[in-house]
Amino acid sequence: MPLKIFYISSEVDPFSSSYLLSKISRKIAVKFQDNPDIEIRLLHPKYGFISERKYILREVIRLRDFPVTFDNKEKLVSIKSAFIPESRAQIYFLEDENYFKPVPELLYKSRNGRLFKDNNDKFLLFSKVALETLKQLLWKPDLIVCNDWQTSFIPQIFKNEYSNDPFFENTRIVFNLFSINENRYYANDSISKVNINLEKNKSKNIDSILSAIKFSDKTICFDQDDNLSKKIKDETQIAKQLTKSNHNFIKIPNSPSFSDWKEIVSTFHKNLVEF
Predict the structure, then answer these.
(1) For residue range 148-174, what is the model confidence (pLDDT) as tens digits?
(2) Which structural domains are found in the chain, ordered by start?
């Protein structure tokens, strides 16, 4: 039986791109899809600038107008399907008129550099829908791979709400860390909208990276030009949490060559199958 991987990312080249996450996501998906021992599917937001015609997005009957509880309300969501260009890697797109359709190509901030106020809400919705999507598809992954601050609450949502669900009995969570910046702080008011008992503290914001590392079965740090490892050294709490957790670093040069990319994807694969 192939290893089933559900890969959840806010960026996948060529659909969206603002930093390393986008290219890594494509490289992993395309390479894994060529491996007969792996079955990989991806989930990505359907930002308004993504052309349905260009990328041939199609409706999925099972994923049309299904209910998800968010902010104490039943919200109907729909997901379409496509393939990453020049590959057979299947990718799903979450549609939402309010959260994702208005998003510009800068993705997380306006042209003046200010973060969008609804970043927390939109990616908490994305995270919640990701797990419900699997149940709608009746597709049971061996691994759910979350990527960076945008999906950093999936591990805790999973452990709180789904870990005792027979559907996910053999599913494990991997968290890929790419960055440590101001985006990682989520407001308590936003967290309450996913309707689970997430740990709260006295401050108004929670460090989602700490949560992801703590509740994942493994954390993989993509360290480009040693930038991430340097930041971790300056973040005492994150450094301590990593030492308590199953984790590995994957070194990435500043401008990876073809052979570098091959090694990066191979190392990531080894990290997935060896824990």
Answers:
(1) 999 999 999 999 999 899 999 999 999
(2) 3-273 (3.40.50.2000)
